[in-house]
Write a structure and sequence with these properties.
Strand order of the largest sheet: 12-11-8-13-16-17-18-19
Number of strands: 19
CATH topology of the largest domain: Rossmann fold
Length: 402
């Protein structure tokens, strides 16, 4: 199954009998849009082996600090993680974390990360209630580590009481409440177009534009992090791949239309952030045209993809468009966007000022989001990632009420 890309999570597994329950937790985390890398402590492998973690996660499960040293794993794992979840955490592991020990890969990773840390204890009641454990847990909470209280119930053997590993659903609820970044687009099927298109003149020349695809890439990435199942239809680019989403690379406007059309009936949201060429050559030469024969070029209009798909949309679909304008005056910029929104028939549109080469290729953007109801959301100079989340907030409201 191709899970949504989701948030990067390191799942640390301590050496307790509850380690086997973390296999189910891993699956449930994937279902909620997390990409999981398992870092088991060496002793935990007595309960669940690496083969299980690697098969379930689809990733290498490393436990020793001295494996793959050239990758500097304790730093790279901590840098990549959006969140570190230690489940189960034994009394010994909690003590080592509280005292800043770094004697295996997991504790080294915890020391080197700036990501939020969530710890789920599981142990015998006498160990959980021991003053040393109580103090260690309080120390961690005082440092901003999220420590979940264990459940009450049957333990190993005939013992019962506080210290039981909580159910996977309860752990995930605690993680998302602590982390503050819920998968609020979970289950939504989102298609994003990005980048410019190239309209061929001959085998070596084309008509194109300056779009880098960065804004659409950011929207696809943030939508997937919020749990959506994402397809990215992407024009020529130099952007990295986003793990876990479907990326379809195209060149021309016609190819982009075909890819959208093939998926349109199955999606909930279409975000048309691509800078689609307005025109294409009437005829394309099979051979390179000699320079002296390039005196003129006859063009014809490309189909207006935003207007076409807005006209076809179901009542429960959401379509967002983009408008690149060269109006430096904010009022004129918004007026142009309102006119375009009315003509195209989309639910909302983002307009930005691209005069003097601004925005294209940049990591920053500014402009305004205008909704069909006339709501205007000014966007000051922000990162394209922040704009993506603001736009997705508006889309989420429409998806949830559609």
């Amino acid at each position: 199954m191709n899970f949504p890309r989701g948030r990067e999570l390191v799942l640390g597994v301590g050496a307790g009998i509850a380690a086997y329950k973390s296999a189910d937790l891993l699956r449930r985390l994937q279902d909620r849009g997390f990409l999981v890398t398992v870092v088991p402590t060496p002793n935990s492998l007595n309960f669940v082996g690496k083969a299980t973690w690697e098969a379930l996660s689809g990733r290498k499960a490393q436990s020793e600090l001295w494996e793959n040293v050239s990758d500097v794993p304790h730093v790279s794992l901590g840098d990549k993680a959006n969140l570190i979840l230690v489940a189960p955490a034994t009394a010994d592991l909690i003590a080592r974390i509280a005292h800043g020990r770094a004697d295996d890969l997991l504790t080294n990773t915890i020391l080197s990360t700036t990501a939020p840390i969530v710890i789920v204890p599981a142990m015998h009641p006498k160990m959980w209630l021991n003053p040393a454990t109580v103090k260690n847990v309080q120390t961690l909470r005082d440092r901003g580590v999220f420590v979940m209280d264990p459940a009450i119930g049957r333990l190993t053997g005939s013992d019962s009481g506080v210290g039981r590993f909580p159910d996977s659903s309860a752990i995930i609820d605690f993680v998302e409440e602590s982390y503050g970044y819920c998968a609020d687009l979970l289950g939504a099927r989102v298609l994003v177009t990005a980048g410019g298109t190239r309209e061929a003149i001959d085998p070596v020349r084309f008509i194109g534009n300056r779009s880098s695809g960065k804004q659409g890439w950011a929207i696809a990435n943030q939508a997937a992090m919020r749990g959506a199942q994402v397809t990215l239809v992407l024009g020529p680019n130099s952007l990295p791949k986003i793990e876990g989403i479907e990326t379809v690379e195209i060149e021309s406007a016609a190819e982009m239309r075909d890819e959208i059309l093939a998926r349109f009936d199955d999606i909930d949201v279409l975000v048309m952030s691509a800078a689609v060429a307005d025109a294409r050559p009437v005829s394309v030469s099979d051979e390179k045209i000699k320079k002296e024969m390039l005196g003129s070029l006859l063009l014809e209009e490309n189909q207006d993809l935003l207007a076409e798909f807005a006209a076809k949309k179901r009542t429960n679909q959401v379509i967002a468009g983009f408008a690149a304008e060269t109006e430096s005056n904010h009022e004129a910029l918004v007026s142009a966007a309102k006119s375009k929104l009315a003509r195209k028939g989309a639910d909302l549109i983002y307009v930005n000022d691209v005069s003097s080469g601004k925005v294209f290729g940049s990591d920053m953007t500014s402009g305004a989001i205008i909704t069909r109801e006339g709501k205007i959301i000014p966007i000051e100079e922000v990162s394209k990632e922040m704009l993506a989340d603001t736009l997705l907030d508006q889309i989420r409201e429409r998806v949830s009420h559609g």
